[in-house]
Design a protein that fits this description.
The structure is a homodimer. Chain A is of the alpha/beta class. The first copy, chain A, folds into 2 domains: about 300 residues, Aminopeptidase (3-Layer(aba) Sandwich); about 130 residues, Alpha-Beta Plaits (2-Layer Sandwich), CATH 3.30.70. In chain A, about 35% of the residues lie in helices and about 20% in strands. Chain A contains 16 helices and 21 strands. In chain A, the strands form 5 sheets. In chain A, strands 10, 12, 14, 15, 16, 17 and 19 form a 7-stranded mixed β-sheet that branches. In chain A, strands 1-2-7-3-8-20 form a 6-stranded mixed β-sheet. In chain A, helix 13 links the parallel strand 15 and strand 16.
Chain lengths: ~500, ~500
């Protein structure tokens, strides 16, 4: 019994360190007592493969979420788009008697593609394990979470989606559940929306919105996605960058040629691609494409002020990421985020390493990623890149080159424009924005980090344009989560703190 | 019986078309009567995987060759190097009573690495099949060769090594066999050498030569490797380019980063590599590295004359390969071959296609191939490239970057210099060179193509330097064989004509 008193004291100490208000402390205490069950359910969720294009498994994820919601007393339904066979979004709603406001919570359950070979030995995308720290920083693998097993708050769970963005689904549902279990009263209606196509550009979200407009109406949608600030402080993000990807393929000879027999004669598509990419962006990170930085809507005074108060993170990041000099040496990370980007996500021509052979490749490919800021139109921005490529002497084609095209043009490039969308930014001074800020601040003693726009992209403009709702993002996961890449992971204490944050927002008036 | 007479007439007609002298006709007739057995043995040989680094299967190839030699009455032995565990070369010798000269015949039985995914549907590297023509040009798959099955001379055999260079082993052994079976007398001693490490740079050939110097002595070694001239004419090559590969890895941040959250801040190694490669070679194929074209020993008058008589192949090649403009628009293929090259064999950073994700990659790799001409030293040539890279602001490392290196240098590159060797060129006017030319000419009515140096590389300088032998290459396979790449293939009539050519050389005095 004495032992239990100590345990209680230790718990109270733990709770008061991380949480601000008494409300938040109650939720934190509930989480601490139920952490084993929460983790157990979460690793089951992570074990279901969730690559967006894997429609069979994606549907299994949706069904799992419906079950989770039922267990928590939330009635759930699948919302489909207009197009047949669209991956459904999962919707749920809690109607609060007498409430005049509705707050929606959004997360996505699909994940980026995985190349299991690139994951660290012992880590597999869809076999979640506990790790003490990132393995590349000397972390150790604890193993799969066993029912009832001890949990260290500092450990992480590794697996695709662990951070981006099954963490969002998990935290939203458990925040509601914690409020119910601890007997807290709600003042607003709560809506839940979990999307399954975010990582392929939310290609049907507009259809789902149009078809379910009434159901999805809310005063504000709160997006639970992305990482908290590098400083570790709780973070609110008022905007996101837009995004569009372009796949480029430059062609050489029709068949791979012996680099001895044809070297100095056959055009090398890898070199051509290198020249083309070099022409797009200089060695100091400046994009050289005509008009690339035009159209940008400047920040407001409040946004500029918030920007100036964001803690400096560059020194820490440089050290942790092993970066000697950032791409643009005179610009901070946060300043760079307020500008559009042109990045190479991937590049390939024939093979390197043990598979390399002495050939002149037939083609060279690059995937470009254009991030957009408020004011940019994604189609226009891509058109500027295409105009630049044409200016470099390329004839643009839509498929593999035909005989005629080969005989007619010295430089052929295939350009596939992927689905894209524009940036979005909500004014920080709106009353609903202020309420959310107060709620999040109530869960922590440290000042919040308020970011006018985050670097990542979500199709948030749809919430404004179709639903007429405001939209604000509250990211909850650790910044070093390897989101979109191999060895993705989430810190367990960030999950618990995320739940506390969301529970506080759910209680606004 | 009448049918047989017609068959005999048709055969004679066939023989007289492709072969010049009566000697050659006898061999051709023998081949025609035995084509089924020859092909049957060859497809068995091709079915043994032969990637140079696959030591278990490489040894199976060596054992198969020993068996082939035994069946043809040639005593065979495995020659090893000084280093333990070196892939053996297969050696054999026929001593001719009263002969004062020795002619050696060399081929290699190992092949370039394979990436089965890159092969055309229905083709597998080590499951040889007959095809009517290259599949990319509308050819059809006939299927595996079945014992006793009909053979169309225009068909091809597809599989790794079919052209490069099991064709050499097959043609040499069957040339000798054809002479024995048709009762032809030899005037010189014949030596056979089949190497198993050619495609990894003949890394132990020097050891094998040093250890077996007496055994391998010959007046001239005839190298059976590489393709005949594009015109289809029979070809003699008096020299080869040297070769050295360099693997480059440019580094970005320690872990893959979300291209939204870190775009415009984290250095992108793919872009850095693009800039670096662009700085090495301009858009007209001119290498920009300091001193790259120095050290070249000019061609002699006979070599220049031979060069001027080589049939123009560029127009045909452009059409067939779908090349609108060669790398250097004002230079012919053969002129380019007389110069050193810098080619990108492969390039990779993160992923493209369905595996692409929105990351800033951690590294970008390129494999460079430097071909060398007479006068270049391969180490010097590589040093010029390294000096250029340093001049572009890179710090060169030998392994993965350490924390200290990351904190100290803005640009890190790992350079792995692969094993290389220098070019070689035998004067065309030497008596032995003249004898071989006469022998090859006796098998065809068309003028030969005499090439001072071919584009490809073989470590032929070792024959001169260690064995003190002259060395001349007689390539036998079709030029469009996809050597070193996917869908490698050899035309069946080129195999038969190759055997005829070699049989004629074996009969010189």
């Amino acid at each position: 019994m004495t032992k239990d008193i100590f345990k209680g004291l230790a718990l109270l100490l733990f709770v008061s360190c991380v949480s601000g208000s008494l409300q938040a402390q109650t939720v934190a205490k509930h989480l601490k007592s139920n952490d084993k069950q929460l983790l157990e359910e979460y690793v089951q969720f992570l074990a279901i493969p969730n690559v967006s294009t894997d429609t069979v498994n994606i549907r299994r994820n949706a069904d799992f979420i419906v079950e989770m919601m039922k267990r928590k007393g939330i009635e759930a339904e699948l919302l489909s788009g207009i197009t047949a066979g669209v991956t459904p979004a999962v919707f749920g709603e809690i109607k609060t008697p007498g409430a005049t406001k509705s707050i929606g919570f959004y997360a996505h359950y699909d994940g980026q593609p995985v190349n299991p070979k690139q994951w660290h030995e012992g880590l597999k995308p869809f076999e979640p394990v506990l790790i003490t720290a990132p393995l590349e920083n000397g972390g150790k693998i604890i193993g799969p979470y066993k029912k009832g097993g001890e949990i260290n708050q500092e450990w992480r769970i590794s697996g695709r989606g662990a951070a981006d963005d099954k963490a969002g689904v998990m935290a939203i549902l458990n925040a509601y559940d914690a409020l119910v279990k601890t007997g807290r009263k709600l003042n607003v209606n709560i809506k839940f929306l979990f999307e399954g196509e975010e990582e392929v550009g939310s290609i049907h979200l507009d259809e789902i919105f149009k078809r379910n407009k009434q159901k999805l109406q809310a005063d504000c949608w709160v997006i639970i996605d992305g990482p908290r600030h590098v400083s570790g402080r709780k973070t609110i993000v008022y905007g996101v960058r837009g995004d569009v990807n372009m796949a480029l393929t430059v062609y050489g000879a029709k068949r791979p040629l012996h680099s001895g027999n044809y070297g100095n004669w056959a055009p090398n598509p890898a070199l051509k691609l290198a020249h083309l990419l070099s022409s797009m962006k200089d060695e100091n990170g400046k994009v050289l494409i005509n008009g690339f930085y035009d159209d940008i809507i400047p920040l407001t005074a409040s946004e500029k002020k918030a920007l100036s108060q964001i803690p400096d993170q560059d020194a820490l990041l440089k050290k942790e990421l092993g970066v000697h000099t950032p791409e643009s040496p005179d610009r901070s990370l946060i300043e760079g985020i307020m500008l559009p980007t042109l990045n190479i996500n991937g590049m390939q021509s024939a093979n390197v390493g043990p598979l390399a052979s002495n050939v002149i490749p037939t083609k060279a490919e690059a995937m470009l990623d254009l991030r957009l800021v408020k004011g940019n139109d994604y189609k226009n921005q891509a058109e500027k890149v295409i105009a630049h490529i044409k200016g470099e002497g390329y004839h643009v084609i839509n498929g593999e080159p035909t005989e005629e095209e080969r005989s007619k043009y010295p430089n052929l490039i295939r350009i596939e424009l992927k689905h894209g969308y524009n940036a979005q930014r909500t004014p920080m001074d709106l009353p609903i924005a202020q309420s959310i800020q107060t709620a999040v601040q109530s869960t922590t003693k440290e000042p919040l980090v308020l970011i006018p726009s985050m670097g990542g992209s979500l199709p948030l403009y749809l919430f404004e344009e179709i639903l007429g709702s405001k939209v604000i993002a509250v990211p909850i996961v650790n910044y070093d989560n390897n989101q979109h890449a191999e060895n993705e992971n989430v810190k367990i204490n960030y999950l618990w703190e995320g739940i506390e944050t969301i529970a506080a927002i759910m209680q606004i008036r």
